[in-house]
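Supplementary Methods. Inverse-folding protocol.

Structures were first reduced to a discrete structure-token string of length 232. This string, shown here, constituted the complete conditioning input.
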């Protein structure tokens, strides 16, 4: 078997982008989730929402397109698609809380097998000094997708039987996308949907703090062309 690959942040975003269906309304949270905008299939009409008040957000702006007053949740300049609108925070949060979003895509520190999510802290040097809109996004969308590394830099697992960090939402996560796998949360269990090429289930289980279940054929994550990640 080949040496396991470890997906980059961009490649994780590519996997998420491929899973967003036609016509979906999607919030992209701070950090890694904002990369998803750069990889959405051009043949799908997908409406992107940003917590800071953009509905109809496009990809990251390049060159002369960049406007420092037009940024996404990660403070990166973006473009707008035709028909986009800019709103105040009150209206933006009303969309989030009112069940208007099909998907919230969030970063995470920990996810438990029952779908609990922990994705905020205040004591890191570059941390946002509040939980922000994460709680609203975690409970306001029809589905919550989480993007994160499978383990910490020191090798501690982020997928657990029970979160040890303060919770953002209880039982809210539907799918986790990591640098090694795509894991669905179903019936209080982690169900492994896809795993990177070259890695065994046992190897991934050793890095996971709760049992991984395989239902049906296990799919593989492979790299193509210039490094585009795809589930096959």
């Amino acid at each position: 078997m080949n040496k396991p690959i470890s997906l980059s942040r961009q490649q994780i975003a590519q996997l998420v982008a491929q899973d967003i269906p036609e016509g979906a309304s999607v919030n992209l949270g701070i950090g890694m989730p904002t990369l998803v905008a750069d990889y959405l299939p051009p043949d799908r009409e997908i409406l992107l929402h940003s917590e800071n008040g953009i509905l109809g957000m496009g990809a990251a702006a390049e060159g002369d397109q960049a406007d420092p007053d037009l940024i996404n949740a990660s403070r990166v300049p973006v473009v707008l698609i035709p028909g986009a609108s800019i709103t105040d925070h009150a209206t933006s949060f009303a969309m989030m809380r009112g069940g208007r979003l099909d998907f919230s895509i969030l970063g995470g520190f920990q996810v438990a097998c029952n779908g609990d999510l922990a994705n905020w802290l205040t004591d890191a040097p570059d941390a946002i000094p509040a939980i922000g809109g994460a709680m609203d996004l975690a409970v306001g969308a029809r589905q919550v997708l989480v993007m994160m590394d499978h383990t910490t830099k020191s090798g501690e697992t982020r997928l657990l039987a029970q979160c040890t960090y303060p919770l953002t939402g209880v039982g809210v996560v539907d799918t986790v996308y990591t640098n090694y796998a795509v894991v669905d949360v179903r019936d209080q269990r982690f169900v492994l949907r896809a795993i990177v090429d070259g890695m065994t289930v046992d190897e991934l289980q050793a890095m996971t703090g709760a049992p991984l279940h395989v239902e049906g054929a296990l799919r593989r994550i492979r790299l193509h062309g210039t490094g585009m990640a795809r589930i096959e």
